[in-house]
Write a structure and sequence with these properties.
Number of strands: 12
GO molecular function, one term: carbohydrate binding
Radius of gyration: 22 Å
Strand order of the largest sheet: 2-1-3-4-5-11
Bound molecules: alpha-L-arabinofuranose
Protein name: ABC transporter substrate-binding protein
InterPro entries: Peripla_BP_I, SBP_2_dom, YtfQ_transport
Subcellular location: Cell envelope
GO cellular component, one term: cell envelope
CATH topology of the largest domain: Rossmann fold
Oligomer: single chain
Distance between the termini: 50 Å
Structural class: alpha/beta
CATH superfamily of the largest domain: Response regulator
Shape: elongated
Order of helices and strands: HEHEHEHEEHEHEHEHEHEHEEH
Strand content: 15-25%
CATH class of the largest domain: Alpha Beta
CATH architecture of the largest domain: 3-Layer(aba) Sandwich
Number of helices: 11
Number of domains: 2
């Protein structure tokens, strides 16, 4: 072999070694919830980007918000004998039978971004999620600090009924504000994590609260509902971010656009990259037998109008929001 050929061969070998442990050979089925929010769209798009980086063959099934579609997708992935299944569970209950089927087929399941009931703990390998109770607590603490001693009536837009993140974000927020007698949640309803429902529910809150005069703050379980609520406030002649404070979760580009315009105050970031760590975990498990911890926690960052929202907006380009 000539020196040139030898160099080319070792360069190729070095490239192969740089890839995460044989991820290139994996076929993974991902049962995704749907596209209810900007964050969800980004999670789908980042999952594809992370799969491409690792040469994983990723098959995504969009469940259009229906658990029955997710169950069908999981059964189809089992029939295809994929190497692993990723599941973003729309609700937290009702998974036991289908996850038992995956376990019997020896296909590891990884939960992404949402949890299932503790009874199902033995049925999945690991969960890559944020601490959603903590996210709610961060939102509540920010609000308590911002309003100080002033009496403050809060309206809450909850996420999808039955979703782990909706229950947890409520719990975290309620616990944080319970320490402050001046803060009270006066109305709370689901907006199903969508912009349209967030707007609709906020309109009804404004009507019921004297045209919004008795509302001091809105807490939304995601930014998309908040973007809808901001629109409702503006249409009612209110100044969101000033007359009524806003705090929500996700850190999607549109909430930073609203912050730049002075119409939103705070958000708690949820990374859309849950799949990257999940691919690496599955590769290590399959190839080296490395058993991961039951929970791989992603970071939650509070971002406010004081944190250069234009820069945050710009940094989210190309992520599929
Ligand atoms: O499970 C994560 C949540 O689901 C996001 O915060 C929300 O935008 C999405 O719909």
């Amino acid at each position: 072999m000539t020196f040139k050929a030898l160099f080319a061969a070792s360069a190729t070998a070095a490239l192969l070694l740089a890839l995460p442990a044989n991820a290139a050979e994996l076929t993974i089925g991902f049962s995704q919830i749907g596209s209810e929010s900007g964050w969800r769209a980004a999670e789908t798009s980042v999952s594809k980007q992370e799969a491409t980086k690792r040469k994983v063959n990723l098959k995504i099934a969009d469940a259009q918000q229906k658990q029955e579609n997710q169950i069908k997708a999981i059964r189809s992935f089992i029939a295809q004998n994929v190497d692993a299944i990723f599941l973003a569970p729309v609700v937290s209950t009702g998974w036991d039978s289908v996850l038992k089927e995956a376990k019997e087929a020896k296909i590891p399941v990884v939960l992404l971004d949402r949890d299932i009931d503790p009874s199902g703990k033995d049925l999945y390998l690991t969960a890559v999620t944020s601490d959603s109770v903590h996210e709610g607590a961060v939102a509540g603490e920010w609000l308590a600090k911002t309003v100080g001693e002033k009496a403050c009536n809060v309206v809450e837009l909850q996420g999808t009924v039955g979703a782990s993140v909706a229950a947890n974000r409520k719990k975290g927020f309620d616990t944080a504000i319970a320490k402050h007698a001046n803060l009270k949640v006066v109305r709370s309803q689901t907006g199903d994590f969508t912009r349209a429902k967030g707007k609709e529910v906020m309109e009804s809150f404004i009507k019921a609260e004297g045209g919004g005069k008795t509302i001091c703050a809105v807490y939304a379980h995601n930014d998309d509902m908040m973007v809808g609520a901001i629109q409702a406030m503006k249409e009612a002649g209110l100044k969101p971010g000033k007359d009524i404070l806003t705090v929500s979760i996700d850190a999607v580009p549109d909430i930073f656009k609203a912050m730049v315009a002075g119409e939103a105050n705070a958000t708690v970031e949820l990374t859309p990259n849950m799949a990257g760590p999940a691919f690496d975990t599955v590769a290590a498990f399959k190839n080296k037998g490395t058993v991961p911890p039951k929970w791989i926690q992603t970071e939650s960052r509070l971002l406010t109008a004081a944190d250069d929202p234009q820069k945050e907006y710009d940094s989210k380009k190309g992520l599929g929001y």
